[in-house]
């Protein structure tokens, strides 16, 4: 197995929960920022709702939220034997209700030859899909020993009998800290430095094990984080004994109690009227904007309540965990909000170096991208993503490997990958025929246009170890952002809110 796996591609999917896109900067995350200068960075968008479990599972499956049906971190489904879902729930009836879900770690083992997957605490990976779980698996653990976790991942990659070629890795920070103290707090700054240290250590270990040159690493987050300071309590506005709320602020599924089922229209109209002056919105399922892809599953409930950004909403004060806070953090609002925008950065031999993908793309596009890198037959894996939207991220030589065997699938049709020289050459041959055979043959031999320096192609993960050792061992220098890196004024650093920038330089 070890000799065979040496021939297959290696891919790491690293997720930092709640990592805002503008945390990527020389002062806040110097190792990540240094790596980003020779990586592809992109304008990725989360799906609605911008919560942890829905988005992690959309990344892993390439499915819209109302397709995989993990609609929130907490849910209710009266049709199931175990009707309530919480983050620790692993029952397959919740994660794979129709027995057709194939996350990327399952696809790698199911469709690849001699492939082994690993998952380090990634949401949803403990549940079996298609009768299997990752060969290497560690369930979620609240102990945050990032160095030990990275060492474990390296052990999986170098295992003598079952070496992994795909591993998903989950970090529950900065989300955990930002919820408590707010996204622009000194505590979050310290959390970011710890994560950045972990990134430097990961790069160091990959190089030490001679894996860097053939490993692709995709760094993502599930959502951003907004600063919150205001609350809405529904019990001050309406009789909350008529319904139950499932989910997490700012988005709740409202389920009417049996004795209130005949009052649905009355309750809806009252909430609709109250919403105008109390900073929230209410929807029937068929009123949820179609762009969110959030209305198909009945797990949404009878009504959906959403507070305005900057406000949290609760049934009453007794369930408000922020009751003693003046400022805190939360997420769940529209993916179009810049505060909800997540991290995307990819590095390794498959990706362009020093490249920014400016056009927004949904995180479901990562699934066909990962399948492509792992050389898996995407046509066997129905999903809503599109490799065509992000094919410009790939290094030039990778464009030649794109063929019609890689197909992005949505609910209604199959999208063949565009910008593929082989396909375009074939089309020209069919149309031109014998009329211009010489010209066609010449065009078929032509390389695609390259609009960047060939020397900028990603050679692999070659992070500067001297830089890593310097910054990993000098937190005080990092803390005040006094690095020797030249700051690229076009980066998102300038978008960090003023109060956070003041914190860094005080």
From TrEMBL:
InterPro entries named in the record: Alkaline_phosphatase_core_sf, Phosphodiest/P_Trfase
Gene3D superfamilies: 3.30.1360.180, Alkaline Phosphatase, subunit A (3.40.720.10)
CDD domains in the record: Enpp
SUPFAM superfamilies reported in the protein's UniProt record: Alkaline phosphatase-like (SSF53649)
Entry's transmembrane regions: 419-441
Annotated keywords: Membrane, Transmembrane, Transmembrane helix
Name under which the protein is recorded: Bis(5'-adenosyl)-triphosphatase ENPP4
Organism: Fragariocoptes setiger
Gene behind the chain: ENPP4
